Amino acid sequence: MEGPSSRVQATRDRPLWPAGRRESGGDAESDRDIKTHFRVCRFIMETGVKLGMRSVPVTTACVLYHRFFERVSLHAYEPYLVAMSCVYLAGKVEEQHIRTRDILNVSHRYFNSGSAPLECDKEFWDLRDSVVQCELLILRQLNFHVSFEHPHKYLLHYLLSVKSLVNRHAWSRTPIAETSWALLRDCYHGAMCIRHTPQHIAIATLHLALNSYGVELPVGEKEWWQVLCVDVTKADIDAVISDLLQLYDMEAKCI
Fold first, then answer.
1. How many structural domains does the chain have?
2. Which InterPro entries does its entry note (predicted)?
């Protein structure tokens, strides 16, 4: 019987995505692999937006993708197929089910701008079957652990707490909240989203947003971030920010 992995590898020869998008060879931690992961996560996010997915299902899809390739070689499976299956699975996990047909059509348009929807021919059904089989492979690789805690709820709480400490005129003049959410979203382009705890990511993105606009908070016996998250250290915040800045450097190389 043909297993999920053989079905997934077989789709490498199908023309949904251009060959130039795939990177291969080299060390798993090489710039080439990191660039591939960055591009694929950008694909997940843009696909999620076009499918009308909420932010949490999209970030769950990114975490599923990073967790999967944390366990397997990037060169063993087609990353964009894995990404489509992660979108499909994340919709189920976060109770925003997305039809496989919609995922395939949006993905097809992503790589073939202006093209017509895919025909419901044998190739379409084979690809659909590969997405479903890849979903099973992901579940097995992750031991069915597909529910994750994200930084979103922590960032919302921290923003509300910090807002009460800042002069309301200064807060209204600077897009602290919008910048924090944008920085948080960007964290999911790389594996840093699974290397750091959700609370530390939330604190670090808010810390970077405040510093970017020169917003100062009242000085007390403890730093504001120590009050909001007792187990975070300045080293933890710096580590998250350093990883995020490296992602932005990677983005410049991916253009």
1. 2
2. Cyclin-like_dom, Cyclin-like_sf, Cyclin-Q_first_cyclin_box, Cyclin-Q_second_cyclin_box, Cyclin/Ssn8, Cyclin_N
